[in-house]
Amino acid sequence: MTGPCVVYVIDDDSSVRAALDDLLASVGIRVLTFDSTTAFLAHGMEDAPGCLVLDVRMPGQSGIDFHRRMAGLGIALPVVFITGHGDITMGVDAIKHGAIEFLTKPFNDQTLLDAIQNGIGKDRDRRRAVAESEMVRARWASLSAGEQEVARLVVQGLLNKQIASVLDVSEITVKVRRAQAMRKMDARTLPDLVRLTGKLDLDGLS
Amino acid sequence: MTGPCVVYVIDDDSSVRAALDDLLASVGIRVLTFDSTTAFLAHGMEDAPGCLVLDVRMPGQSGIDFHRRMAGLGIALPVVFITGHGDITMGVDAIKHGAIEFLTKPFNDQTLLDAIQNGIGKDRDRRRAVAESEMVRARWASLSAGEQEVARLVVQGLLNKQIASVLDVSEITVKVRRAQAMRKMDARTLPDLVRLTGKLDLDGLS
DNA sequence: GCCGAAAATATACCAAAGTATAATATTTCT
DNA sequence: AGAAATATTATACTTTGGTATATTTTCGGC
């Protein structure tokens, strides 16, 4: 495997949990099983790329309901549904809401493994993107208000002279803030700064 | 409606075609119906945002097969499937391959209309993005080889002096090419050029 | 080989950007 | 209020970027 990863299995049927535990352990993937969404939430998530195998139909909160609430709970884990009794609309809607797969029992073991690997890969990519975005965001937050203003106008293509006029400060102040912004953003060149701020959506951050 | 648009309906059942024709005409959407994918291909597509309503099961090429071949045929139209006899896997796979909806008869008229409007909106967005990308690409193609080289290095953050050294030309030549590149790309400032070329993937274009 | 067009280069100049030092103003904390 | 920290501004200088004009070079076609 390329690095550590975890598969969370939520199914009320203990025989299913045991079977999936065996299957995944046999290919060397770390597995955590739960008999309900509540139990999963109580345990929490590990800090590693992962994938959630979710039973559609369960006592208490159904897998479908849980899937819908995941975003609100801040859980971005890719989901692979498994079910004994599903209908077309349910499967279609699940995929439309972003699920990786919707498998009906009995399903082929390899099909499930492929879906899980796919999900783990997607989660790995997502985590990388989030980490990068967070780093840029943290750097941006380290700029003073004045430095952010200058940086924003610099990236818009204004000259130092124009920025000084817009902000009603001296051109020297603009140069100081600009240099400071470059240092804090860890941008060696102006194109670097443009690319970094491009990941920020400066309109939304003012 | 926000601008012109077309809905293509492909279904071998003439009563379905007539019903959809009525339904869509009643809300003021232009409709073209076909009894097979072949007939649709023979007619060709209009130059307007659109959506394809596709029967899953047809004599000759099935809707599912056609959907898979659309990318290869250069058809990016959003697809809404309708079917009388489908199974979960078929619906799930269709959505996974990018279909907007997978509806089983009998379906609610409003559900279909919503899906179609959704598809048209997506196609409109896609067409806009493609048009913008094409414009940038055309501008880039208007640069001479030397101008492209200079522009690429400029965007990487190199100084004119460094670019001259890398390309083994004089710094004055770099300045001329650089100015010419800015003019041809219609970039008023360096940040503009960075953003424009960012849409190009310069690695792939050499 | 000669010619015309396009590209490259040289020269000269000005505006803009980057940097360092120091002085002044402002804010913040005690 | 007073002191320390921070921000702003001024001055001076260097490097870089942008532009215009003129000259030279290069290259394809006749």
UniProtKB/TrEMBL annotation, chains A, B:
Residue ranges of every copy of the HTH luxR-type domain listed in the record: 136-201
DNA-binding found in the keyword field: yes
Keyword Transit peptide included in the entry's annotation: no
PROSITE patterns given in the database record: HTH_LUXR_2, RESPONSE_REGULATORY
Protein name, entry field: Response regulator transcription factor
Annotated Gene3D superfamilies: 3.40.50.2300, Winged helix-like DNA-binding domain superfamily/Winged helix DNA-binding domain
Organism: Gluconacetobacter dulcium
GO biological process: phosphorelay signal transduction system; regulation of DNA-templated transcription
